[in-house]
């Protein structure tokens, strides 16, 4: 059975002005997401600023998310690293914290070979019992999980069950699904490509967009599953200008700005991330108004 089906939110980590994690606010936005129809919460990922957390902070944020979610929807914990041993430690701690699944990005900077990626994911998977969603985002990591590698891992490692597909390459995504006989649990990692990836067999999305419009992203997926393709198309098209604005600067800079515009008070970003440029912030504000969120 899939870890989740539908719209998973790649949730932000709200910060206080002193840059400590704002756990009270995190609980508030998790409740809001679930009320808005979100089907899963993905914590401590790129959008959650895990790259600027200590390992201890990352585990504590995962533990808090599990507690706040109260088993209403699955919690998938980001536990990847460019060091295999560190990824194993984080994955084991996430499992102890009660996560329902793991999202593990490819090693970054190292530029691992495909055999190295097979070894990396296999060792992590063998260290835990939780289902693992691999995360392929070569624009950030400099490392591309090839379809043949995904298929090998999916077919040979029992608890490697899924892939967050964020290459932007539909041909690669299609080949990956073909090599796994259409059974791989694929999730879109690109908010602008949710519907196209659903059309080739994806189960849903791990979404930045959901932070500001959870009901729409849920309804996009559910409409597709219900066979109402026209409604799914309308929601996807409606979202495109806002999605463009949400990625006009590196994620999560714009989405945190959007949430602050909307009065959610998710606080500042940790360095080296910085506040959004004025010109892009104005475009984002206009996109939020056009969408009906301001």
Walk me through what this model shows.
With 294 residues, the protein is an alpha/beta fold. The chain has 12 helices and 8 strands. The protein has an 8-stranded parallel β-barrel, surrounded by 6 helices. Helix 2 links the parallel strand 2 (40-43) and strand 3 (75-78). Helix 11 (253-261) packs across helix 12 (278-291). The longest helix is centred in the last third of the chain and has 18 residues, at 229-246.
How are the SSEs ordered, and which strands pair?
Layout: E1 6-10, H1 23-35, E2 40-43, H2 55-69, E3 75-78, H3 84-97, E4 101-105, H4 114-126, E5 132-136, H5 138-141, H6 147-156, E6 160-165, H7 170-179, E7 185-188, H8 194-199, E8 204-207, H9 214-225, H10 229-246, H11 253-261, H12 278-291
Parallel strand pairs: 1-2, 1-8, 2-3, 3-4, 4-5, 5-6, 6-7, 7-8
Helix pairs in contact: 1-2, 2-3, 3-4, 4-6, 6-7, 9-10, 10-12, 11-12
